[in-house]
Design brief:
Elements (H helix, E strand, L loop, with lengths): L11 H10 L7 E5 L12 E2 L9 E2 L3 E4 L10 E7 L14 E4 L11 E4 L3 E6 L2 E6 L8 E2 L10 E3 L7 H9 L4 E5 L2 E8 L3 E2 L10 E2 L1 H10 L4 E9 L3 H14 L2 E5 L10 H8 L1 E5 L3 E2 L5 E4 L4 E5 L3 H19 L10 E5 L10 E11 L4 E6 L9 H4 L3 E5 L11 E6 L6
Parallel strand pairs: 5-6, 13-16, 13-17, 14-15, 17-21, 19-23, 22-24
Antiparallel strand pairs: 1-12, 2-11, 3-10, 4-6, 4-7, 5-9, 8-9, 18-20, 20-21, 22-26, 23-24, 23-25, 25-26
Helix pairs in contact: 1-6, 3-6, 4-5
The structure holds ligand LQZAQKY5 and molybdate ion.
């Protein structure tokens, strides 16, 4: 047995279930102006206050008339014009037609529109007449309520407001929406070896990529981020940052110090200040991931290795945050793909190997190639990837040509 397939590690699926069971959906809501509501989580169902479209109207620039008035021999006099926003106001004599533009209210009594390309216009005594080809009754009319009817439920709580949802709400004339308040998420890195990008590295030092990468992931969510920077490997200093984070935030995310080294204080402090929910999962990368509760917040301890920090944030923290923020998210998409390279894997932990999938245009099949060495400190394995090849805990090496599942990166990793 190798170092990394020790028994007693909690399966990833169980960890997700336990975290979901140990967090609650934020209860406070607020009203948000529609134009600021992008990415917020809807807190109540939206019923349409009106019919869409609100009136029968033309789908084409052309001519509107009563189908029953149409005659092959007699051209129709054009008695006026209807524009979008400027309805035709007069009377329409039997056999008359109206010049009409796309979106204009269909004058009462008319039922058919012909696009102008299918109309032949003549002019006699300063009066216009039109004849039409290829006419079908009721064509080119958009009926009141054919899209949405008053009272229809158009969105349900838990929906994250994408540009599509914002557009729909704008169609309905809704200026404010009730959303869940934003979660406050505190983040910090731990480690004496960490410098910030832009600083000069000393002997034995590296750059703090975890806090910055995790922050970038969180910036794609409707959360307020409290960035507490880098905390040295000092128990007292770490304790005070834990306490500050817990007093100010709903969620605390640290990176590093969750393993068993002499300067790994994270789990110890979680035990002292709160409760450890679980520690150590059958996941690769990310085995020492810790979850627990502080007096006022939920705590996620990401492992220090850079790939481990990003993968555990993605696979374990993000779904739990979604639940806390009230977001009823769709599960991640996976599709079958053929390996164009073998993958090395020891049975024991569910492995989120990174791959680059492409669509083979000849066969219509997805194929996926490894991004190379998959060590949890090899961050370049993330960069050329566009998703994971998640290999179940029990599986071993995969051969070229094997069919595997491919999981495209979620939007916060793209
Ligand atoms: N004896 C054992 N050693 C280790 C085990 C184990 O089970 N037994 N697990 C290994 C695994 S797996 C991982 S993952 C790491 C996790 O360790 P920690 O969470 O305690 O992280 P550190 O020791 O602080 O750092 C690990 C590694 O990552 C670098 N690091 C830390 N923070 C950052 C940051 N913000 N940005 C970039 N890189 C960071 C750090 O310099 C180390 O190289 O433990 C293994 N060891
Ligand atoms: O395998 Mo650790 O879990 O990420 O380096």
């Amino acid at each position: 047995m190798g170092c990394c397939d020790a028994p007693g590690l909690m399966p990833v699926e169980q960890a997700l279930t336990e975290m979901a069971a140990n967090v609650t959906n934020v209860s406070e809501t607020e009203f948000c102006e529609l134009e600021q509501a992008f990415d917020r989580i809807l807190a109540e169902a939206v019923a349409s206050p009106l019919d869409i479209p609100p009136f029968d109207n033309s789908a084409m620039d052309g001519y509107a008339f009563r189908f029953a008035d149409l005659s092959a021999d007699i051209p129709m006099p054009v008695v006026g014009t209807a524009l979008a926003g400027q309805p035709f106001a007069g009377d329409i004599p039997a056999g008359g037609c109206v010049r009409i533009m796309t979106g204009a209210l269909l004058p009462a009594g008319l039922d058919t529109v012909v696009m102008q390309e299918n109309a032949e216009l003549t002019e006699t005594d300063d009066k216009k007449y039109a004849r039409f080809a290829n006419v079908k009754a009721n064509s080119n009319v958009r009926y009141r309520g054919e899209d949405v009817s008053t009272g229809d439920t158009v969105m349900t709580p838990g929906c994250r407001l994408s540009p599509r949802h914002i557009g729909q709400l704008a169609c309905l004339g809704i200026a404010q929406v009730k959303v869940y308040r934003k979660l406050k998420v505190a983040i910090f890195s731990t480690g004496d070896e960490l410098k910030q990008p832009g600083e000069i590295l000393g002997k034995g030092e590296i750059y703090d990529s975890n806090r910055i990468a995790v922050k970038a992931m969180l910036q794609r969510l409707p959360v307020d981020i409290l960035d507490l920077g880098v905390v040295p490997d000092d128990e007292a200093k770490l304790r005070s940052v834990f306490q500050q984070a817990d007093s100010e935030a709903d969620v605390v995310i640290s990176s590093g110090g969750v393993s068993v080294g002499d300067a790994d204080y994270t789990k110890l402090l979680l035990e002292q200040l709160g409760q450890v929910g679980f520690w150590k999962l059958a996941i690769k990368p990310g085995k020492p991931f810790a979850f627990g509760a502080l007096p006022n917040s939920r705590f996620f301890g990401l492992p220090g290795n850079p790939v481990s920090a990003v993968v555990t944030c993605d696979q374990l923290v993000m779904p739990t945050l979604q639940k806390m923020m009230g977001w009823q998210a769709e599960p991640a998409i996976q599709y079958p793909a053929k390996l164009t390279s073998g993958l090395r894997k020891r049975p024991g932990r569910k492995d989120y190997q990174r791959g680059e999938a492409t669509l083979d245009s000849d066969t219509g099949q997805w194929q996926v190639v490894t991004t190379g060495a998959q060590g949890s400190a090899i961050f370049s394995s993330m960069v050329s990837a566009n998703g994971y090849v998640p290999l179940p805990a029990a599986s071993g090496n995969q051969a070229e040509g094997d069919e595997v599942w491919f999981e495209p990166f979620a939007e916060w990793l793209r």
